[in-house]
Protein: GMP synthase [glutamine-hydrolyzing]
Amino acid sequence: QVAILDFGSQYSHLIARRVREMNVYCELYSCLVPIEELAPHNLTAIILSGGPNSVYEEGAPHVSKEIWDMIAERDIPVLGICYGMQELAHVFGGKVAPGQEREYGKAMVKRIEGCQSRLFDGLPEEFQMWMSHGDKLHAVPEGFKKAAGTSNADFVAIENEDKKMWGLQFHPEVTHSPRGADILKNFVVNIAGAKQDWVMTDYANEFIESVRKQVGEHGHVIGAVSGGVDSTVAAVLMNKAIGHRFHAVMVDNGCLRKDEAKNVLKRLREDCGVDLRCIDAADRFMGLLEGVTDPERKRKIIGGTFIDIFQEEAEKIEKEFGHCDWLLQGTLYPDVIESISYKGPSATIKTHHNVGGLPATMKLKLIEPLRELFKDEVRALGIALGIDEVSVWRHPFPGPGLAIRILGEVNKKHAEILRHADAIMIEELYKSGHYRAIGQAFVVLMPTVKSVGVMGDGRTYENVCAIRCVETTDYMTADFYHLPYEVMSNMSSRIINEVRGINRVCYDISSKPPATIEWE
Ligand code: XMP
Structure:
């Protein structure tokens, strides 16, 4: 395996992802990993990640002496990236100090004439890479030579072929470094000779094995399953790992899409073999939402009630089986980065409801099988697990559901109108072949806005709705989708003709920022 020692960079998981993309097995460890944990593995290569510290500062993290000794003994190739390169330099006697200027963003990296570094095989003499550092290398350690520089820094790539050590000041793992993946591949495959035989199903098998150990022979796990790709993949994995000791629960809050509970139950049970239970709590939620129009209040009510129901379910399992010890969560890597990268107070734009906020009294330990993956990797894993394409390619759907797409009071009548219009819109997206290219699509109902129309010979005075389709990869920024007029026109005429209560349809052409994807 390739071991990535993580010094706390925001990009450490991206390194892992790039290595996985080469079909090479890798694992991420803390940079402070004890030798006992690392030594038993057959290590093909070690990559030292970037990190926020300065190597020369007191208290800065360092790889232990025992690990450096093991690297020397076993002759393991090492690549240091950013802080990782500075760590190499620091340990082997180079000089790291603050740079005159901090360097962030794109930089042109120039190879040193006459230096045929194997790391840059196949790359041109000059190439663009992405930098993000304050410290820099002022002198290379003995035995190392300079392999590339920029106009601002002399030593942006160093190497010591004898010791099998390479260092890069820039970040080859980010997509802003267009040839970065080639450099990583040169190191991992060509230099270190890692085997390219790892596939996504291996990820699943490793998880299944480790979760069996973690949960033990008697542990029970509860998990909320919405039917979205993340919770479906997590549930299928858990089901494969511990079968009937996994309790999958879906809550129908009355704000789901048309036939959602029925379809998700069928897919999970019949196609995925997961014994999902649906709790019909529509009346309970609707009762609590009566008269509520404020978006944040809606979210709080729905989130809080969801937690109450989940807690009740966990207690029932506990009573029946003696214990319910673990909670399954479909957390993805971007959720993890977002939650750790906000160091200071940040404005609450919207309170996203998520099971992470379960009360401490539940005392459940978390299992997060997707914590290291990005959305497209979860989809690849879903396909590898044999989950159907419809489940794998579904757009995300927010926890509060249609409640935050009804701008005003949420009640059964409004939910029914919206559900109907939304189903038509989604059907037309599938029919026209646009569903996959879109990140998220939905209809918003504005029950407080009425417009005048004419149907047959009569006047109508009805609701307005808006169609929102966005293109996005990370849901942090988004652009409105350029849906052909013809498709819009079909949607509009079908909605107005078929949905009682809507006589006007608009298309939302705002991007995020400054708008958000949802309207509330
Ligand atoms: P916004 O509206 O903030 O949405 O641009 C970004 C993404 O988050 C989803 N979203 C939520 N998901 N609970 C969720 O589980 C929520 O309360 C929630 N609010 C927004 C939204 O659908 C989009 O995918």
About this structure: The chain has three domains: 2-191, 200-392, 411-507. The domain at 411-507 is CATH 3.30.300.10 (GMP Synthetase; Chain A, domain 3). The pocket of xanthosine-5'-monophosphate is lined by residues 299, 350, 352-354, 396, 398-400, 440, 475, 512, 516-518 (CB under 6 Å).
